[in-house]
Design a protein that fits this description.
nine-stranded antiparallel beta sheet; eight-stranded antiparallel beta sheet
Length: about 350
């Protein structure tokens, strides 16, 4: 056999052996590959914080209990990775934005559900009986940690290496010394970027379920009423609660109001409501109760920016300038129309 052919054959065999090693990591102890192994279980209401840190950054979740008639939600603090150079600051450290705090959306709520009732794909064995380096341990810098409100010892997992294909990740539970294999998707969902984590809703409930909306533009307030549903069309809105014909302009404005979405949350230092500021528009939304069930305020910010504050967001948020202007323009037309009647 020519020498070149022999070398090529050895390279091929070596490549196949390495691929097999990556796809089939060492198993020093028998495993239950087809069973779901519970790592821990903790009541969500007892969780103070869930911290997940990797080389991509850090995310801290703070589940909030039922408050003021609102369903439980999760505050998210998203920290970008530290890019500073060893022994000094990076050139753009001064420009680096502070960590942002915002309300988590459905993906965050699902992550909290999964992480508080954590299930592993496989139990590998005790770390003391394994080759730790082969599984990515020790690794104190990257971890998943749950702290509870009772001040007890935190639940912690050290994050190890990813398997071939990055479908699974090895984790070490220091309290028991056990190494598990977790589905990487359980953790990766928290590192998908802020825009995929935040709750983009301005209001928790659809505006279409309201019975009345009080629109305030400066000193002028207009009461908008949902009229009885017609047999051949959707609910209509008008200024007269006893009217029989809806106002198309009001219906269009309500549709534009419903399209408002959170673009971003402001830095926490800027997000508190300034009592001295007068909103450009305020809408108070009523159901069957005497008190409004929700509300929203729009403010003109600097540099053609628009901000919103609502009973749902709790802090000032950035919104689309284009959509905000549609809502403001429509509101002015309605207020002018009401004043002329």
């Amino acid at each position: 056999m020519p020498r070149s052919v022999a070398i090529l054959a050895l390279l091929i065999v070596g490549s196949l052996a390495w691929a097999y090693y990556l796809a089939h990591p060492p198993k020093e102890l028998p495993s239950s590959a087809d069973q779901s192994i519970e790592v821990w279980r903790v009541n969500t209401s007892a969780v103070r914080t869930i911290t997940f840190r990797t080389e991509k950054g850090e995310v801290v979740l703070e589940p909030q209990s039922h408050e003021e008639g609102e369903s439980p939600f999760v505050w998210v603090t998203h920290h970008k990775p530290d890019r500073s150079t060893p022994g000094g600051k990076s050139e753009d450290e001064e420009k680096k934005p502070a960590a942002r705090r915002f309300k988590g959306g459905a993906s965050v709520e699902k992550a909290v559900e999964n992480l508080t009732a954590l299930v592993a794909h496989r139990r590998i064995g005790k770390l003391t009986g394994l080759d730790g380096e082969a599984f990515g341990f020790p690794n104190d810098e990257h971890f998943l940690q749950i702290e509870t409100t009772d001040g007890g010892e935190a639940l912690r997992l050290e994050l190890g290496a990813l398997t071939y294909g990055k479908i699974y990740r090895y984790v070490h539970h220091p309290a028991s010394g056990t190494v598990y294999l977790l589905r990487a998707s359980l953790l990766n969902s928290l590192m998908r970027g802020k825009q995929r984590l935040l709750d983009g809703r301005i209001l928790a409930e659809p505006i279409g379920t309201a019975r009345r909306i009080d629109l305030q533009m400066g000193q002028d307030t207009v009461n908008l009423w949902k009229l009885p549903e017609s047999q051949d069309g959707p609910s209509e809105w008008g200024i007269d609660p006893d009217g029989s014909e809806g106002d198309e302009q009001i219906a269009e404005w309500i549709a534009e109001l419903a399209k408002l979405r959170v673009v971003d949350y402001l830095d926490e230092s800027l997000a508190e409501e300034d009592e001295s500021r007068t909103p450009d528009l305020e809408a108070r939304i009523f159901g069957d109760e005497e008190e409004p069930r929700s509300w929203i305020k729009l403010y003109r910010g600097g540099a053609s920016q628009w901000q919103a504050l609502s009973s749902h967001t709790r802090f000032l948020v950035k919104i689309s300038p284009r959509q905000a202007k549609k809502v403001i323009t429509g509101g002015r037309k309605i207020a002018k129309q009401a004043a002329e009647k």
